[in-house]
Design a protein that fits this description.
3-stranded parallel beta sheet; 7 helices
């Protein structure tokens, strides 16, 4: 996770559904920005095609409490003993929760926002805090590993530790680098997990000029829209 990217830009993320008006592929990583609080109104404006958001937390952001435009996707960021209770409580109160995300960059360190959780601990936590949500009709996202080779290794160890008891519905992807690398990485993930939907939940071509960043955005968003 690169905080400057999250604070300054609007990512587009990949999910499984398609629409002509508002795109259910497009969601928001929401991190409050005290320097630009008025940006919050952009995400729910009539011109925005965003339909969902997450905030690295199990509970929604108060700024969107009265919004009917953005569906909240809870995230189990790291080790937790309250995630299941947090999510089921929201569902019982009428919240439309149909997806959850889990374990932000568990193979990464805290200096870059990673949860740095061992794969076996994550598997144990998943089975206790996440797997029961399956019975409530919630679709479950695999741990969101980094785009480094360590991500594939960690995820393989996670599934081994799960021993068939972690019912993953989709695979989140993180990538920081150029478009060619992004497309290659997504191809590798899709090749490894052939029957799973891919969500790109963090990405950027970091450390480039504004013009280059805009070009990267245009290429990647068009590429995402071509994917099923």
């Amino acid at each position: 996770m690169h905080w400057s990217f999250l604070l300054q830009t609007l990512p587009l993320f990949l999910s499984c559904a398609r629409s002509q008006s508002s795109s259910s592929k497009r969601g928001l990583v929401y991190v409050p920005n005290a320097k630009h609080p008025h940006d919050d109104s952009i995400w729910v404006s009539d011109s925005s095609d965003l339909t969902w958001y997450y905030n690295y937390d199990s509970t929604p952001s108060p700024v969107f409490d009265n919004s009917t435009k953005l569906q909240f996707v809870p995230m189990l960021w790291g080790s937790s003993t309250t995630f299941l209770d947090d999510v089921t409580s929201q569902i019982k109160k009428g919240a439309n929760i149909t997806y959850v995300l889990t374990f932000n960059e568990p193979d990464g360190g805290g200096s870059t926002g990673g949860s740095a959780i061992p794969a076996d601990t994550a598997a144990e936590t998943w089975q206790r805090e996440v797997e029961p949500l399956k019975k409530l009709g919630v679709k479950l996202g695999a741990p969101a590993v980094t785009g480094a080779p360590s991500g594939f290794t960690w995820l393989e160890s996670f599934f081994t530790a799960c021993n068939g008891n972690c019912s993953v519905d989709f695979i989140p992807v993180h990538w920081y680098g150029n478009f060619e690398g992004l497309a290659s990485h997504i191809g590798q993930v899709r090749g490894t997990y052939k029957n799973k939907t891919i969500w790109v939940t963090e990405y950027a071509d970091n450390h480039v000029s504004l013009k280059e960043s805009q070009s990267f955005y245009n290429s990647s968003s068009q590429y995402f829209d071509r994917l099923e």
